[in-house]
Amino acid sequence: IRDRGLFLGSESIYMTISGCLPQGIVSVLQIPFSRDGKIDTKCLAHLVKHAAVSGASGVMAPVVASEVSHLSLDERVEVVCTIAEAAANKIPLIVGASSSSVSECRKFCRLAIQEGAIASLVAVPPALRDDADGVLQFFAEVTAGSSLPLLIQDLDWNGSGLPMDTIIQLGQKLPVFAGLKIETVPAAVSYTHLTL
């Protein structure tokens, strides 16, 4: 286990969270549905077990690739609880807690803690993407009083994502900031400046 560091040229930000994230492949779980349109919890639990026995370092859900935008809040809770039960003592869980609503993010971060997750993943709300102060305020409110490690999803299919200055400020101001999930076009811009 090593300390996580974010290195940007001559500046460095050392995360206060040591070894909180799994190293290796973290499987993003797809949400299976039964023929009647309900979440197939038996199949979902099987996907968790399959990830564990196949050597994945962790599982993550519900997130964009899990079609989270098509789930109700109650279904999101059902997904997290099902995965947590199947993952217990087998594989680390990162809970997708994204929403444009601070209170919804906080609700899912609390659920992540309750269900034994090692971290949460929260995407930058699209409406705040070009508002550095808004991004900082949003994540400060989401993480206020929490010790749960946070991954920030920098999802921008039409651009290069968060500016480096904003990422540096997030690292300086959020004690629980543990890493980035970079999903930008082109991604090389962010990867060139970051070494995690």
Main traits of this protein?
single chain, 196 residues, alpha/beta, six-stranded parallel beta sheet, two-stranded antiparallel sheet, 6 helices, globular
Q: Structural class from helices and strands?
A: alpha/beta
Look at the structure and give the mean pLDDT.
86
Order of helices and strands: EEEHEHEHEHEHEH
Count of individual beta strands: 8
Number of helices: 6
Cα-atom radius of gyration: 16 Å
Q: Going across the biggest sheet, name each strand in turn.
A: 3-4-5-6-7-8
Approximately how much helix is present in the residues?
25-40%
Low-confidence stretches: 1-18
Largest sheet, strands/sense/barrel: 6 strands, parallel
Share of β-strand residues? 15-25%
Shape type: globular
Distance between the termini: 14 Å
Structural overview:
By secondary structure, the protein is an alpha/beta fold. Helix content is 35%, strand content 23%. It is built from six helices and eight strands. The protein has a six-stranded parallel beta sheet. The protein is globular, with a radius of gyration of 16 Å. The two termini are 14 Å apart.
Please give a quick description of this structure:
By secondary structure, the protein is an alpha/beta fold. It is built from six helices and eight strands.
